[in-house]
Every structure is written in C-alpha cells, then in structure tokens.
Amino acid sequence: MKINERCLVLGVVLGAALMACGAEPSSNSVLDGGAKDAGTSGQCAEASTDGGSASDRCQDEADLAWLASAASPTQSGRELARAEASNCGLSCLNDPCPATCAVNCMTQQRGIDLSAGCADCYGTIVLCTIENCLPQCINDSQAPGCKQCQDAIGCNERFYACTGPLPD
Q: How far apart are CA 132 and CA 5, in angstroms?
C-alpha cells in the first residue's frame, strides 16, 4: 500500500471515530450530565467532564458499605474501584466511548459492586483523565504527576463532588 493510500485509510478511520463521538446526546443515556448514548448510531454515553449537576452519588448505604469493605484480600472496595477504574480506563483508550466502556468494564467484568450512579463518577474521572492528563497518567494513575494534573485540571474535584465523601 502506498503512503497516500495509508493516509487516506487513516483519515477515513479517524474521521469516522470523530463523527461517532460528535453525535447529539440521547435521552436514554446510561451516564447523565451532558452524556451521549452508546449503542445508538455510534453515539457515546459519556460522563460530563464539567461534573454535571449530580452530586453525592455514592452515598447510599450499599455503595458506602461496599467501598469500605474488604473487597479483596489486600484492598478495600474503594482501593479496588480506584485500581479497576485505572485498569479499565487503559483498556478502553481506543474505545470511542471510554467512560461508558470503563464503567461497563468495572461493573460487568471486574466485579465492582456499585450503583450505576456511583460507577458513573468513576467513568467521569476516567474520561477527564484521558482527555486532559493521559501523558502523566498512562503508566501509573497514582503517580504524583498524574495526581497533580488531575488536581490542576479539576478531575478530582469533580469526582469527589459526584461521589460525596468516601470512606477511608
């Protein structure tokens, strides 16, 4: 394949991906707060990077109990959810809808037992990090440079506004 043909193919693929995520939001969105719906005409159900109006979405008894529990032999639910959000975010980098992909990965494949609203908060920080801090976070989401970027951009502030106070 000639270089011009490769460029044309790459352009078509990238254009299609951009068009898929640029579609209008749907009313049956999985994630709210300015979301686009996955599964309909290539649209995405993405968490809003502006934090939306949702707050305290992890404050029901079941979410708080799971986050405080020993979800694995070495991690609390909160630590496991953070680790799996990072793992799922990385595995969803090439998905046209990374926040939706990460939430589905966490709740359906990795056993994170959170309500849909609480899991959406993790999707919000995944999307914010991918859009704004990927170079600092790609190797280690707990690295100081990653956390500094997330703080400077406001990803963490939006995450905690979404979740409400979390157990230690």
A: 32
